[in-house]
Amino acid sequence: EAEVAQSPRYKITEKSQAVAFWCDPISGHATLYWYRQILGQGPELLVQFQDESVVDDSQLPKDRFSAERLKGVDSTLKIQPAELGDSAMYLCASPRAENTGELFFGEGSRLTVL
Amino acid sequence: KNEVEQSPQNLTAQEGEFITINCSYSVGISALHWLQQHPGGGIVSLFMLSSGKKKHGRLIATINIQEKHSSLHITASHPRDSAVYICAVESGGGADGLTFGKGTHLIIQP
């Protein structure tokens, strides 16, 4: 089955450091989502891309978070500086097909900020 | 914004028991999803439904549109079913308007 690749799987960092997560969605899929999932909660949308363009980043804390998808393929989510409250699972997903809510998720990147 | 509530939040049961997880939402939807998240973190889609009932192996999902309620049932539960089960609703526009519940943490003991 098609896969969404993410790295790293785990990241431990100290507060005020910079961290970056990478996602390679399903080949040819224009739409890409980054979600944040705090322990015990459901995923919350951070940013949505359509090709290289940001469609929705209303929930992205733009003072410290940034996301890009320069060539409309893989994407990077960056946090600088990291804060204790950023500890969470960061999930990347792309739709099974256009105009469907059924998503393929990556394995996620678990961030721990000390 | 749609409010999605799941119950119970945590559930521990013995192998072989019949499991029911509930999901309710506040606003009309175009579709509802049940997802499974194993301890490693990855999420997989189990069902997408907009009416009636769907069955896949030992899993059954039902939805009542009028009552804004869905249930996920597991028959003959097994320890490998231990996971977090997440309900998510679409309010139109595919995954753009997806709202997730907090999940139900299920543990099946041998």
Distance between the termini of chain A: 36 Å
Radius of gyration of chain A: 13 Å
Strand content of chain A: over 45%
Number of helices of chain B: 0
Portion of residues within helices of chain A:
under 10%
Main pleated sheet of chain A: 7 strands, mixed
Oligomer: heterodimer
How many strand units of chain B?
11
In round numbers, the mean pLDDT of chain A is 92
Would you kindly provide a brief summary of this structure?
Chain A is mainly β. In chain A, 0% of the residues lie in helices and 49% in strands. Chain A is globular and about 40 Å long.
Give an overview of the whole structure.
Chain A is an all-beta fold and 114 residues long. Chain A is 0% helix and 49% strand. In chain A, the strands form two sheets. In chain A, strands 2, 4, 5, 6, 9, 10 and 11 form a seven-stranded mixed beta sheet that branches. A four-stranded antiparallel beta sheet of chain A has the order 1-3-8-7, with no helix packed on it. The mean pLDDT of chain A is 92. By secondary structure, chain B is an all-beta fold. Chain B is 0% helix and 57% strand. Chain B contains no helices and eleven strands. Chain B has strands spanning 4-7, 10-14, 19-25, 31-37, 43-49, 52-56, 59-64, 69-74, 83-90, 99-100, 104-109. In chain B, the strands form two sheets. In chain B, strands 2, 4, 5, 9, 10 and 11 form a six-stranded mixed beta sheet that branches. Chain B has a five-stranded antiparallel beta sheet with strand order 1-3-8-7-6, with no helix packed on it. Chain B starts with a strand and ends with a strand. At the A-B interface, strand 5, strand 9 and strand 10 of A face strand 5 and strand 9 of B.
Keywords:
A: 114 residues, mainly beta, four-stranded antiparallel β-sheet, B: 110 residues, six-stranded mixed β-sheet, 57% strand
Layout of secondary structure:
The complex is a heterodimer of chains A (114) and B (110).
Chain A (H helix, E strand, L loop, with lengths): L4 E3 L2 E4 L5 E6 L6 E7 L6 E7 L2 E4 L8 E4 L6 E5 L8 E8 L7 E3 L3 E5 L1
Parallel strand pairs in A: 2-11
Antiparallel strand pairs in A: 1-3, 3-8, 4-5, 4-9, 5-6, 7-8, 9-10, 9-11
Chain B lengths: L3 E4 L2 E5 L4 E7 L5 E7 L5 E7 L2 E5 L2 E6 L4 E6 L8 E8 L8 E2 L3 E6 L1
Parallel strand pairs in B: 2-11
Antiparallel strand pairs in B: 1-3, 3-8, 4-5, 4-9, 6-7, 7-8, 9-10, 9-11
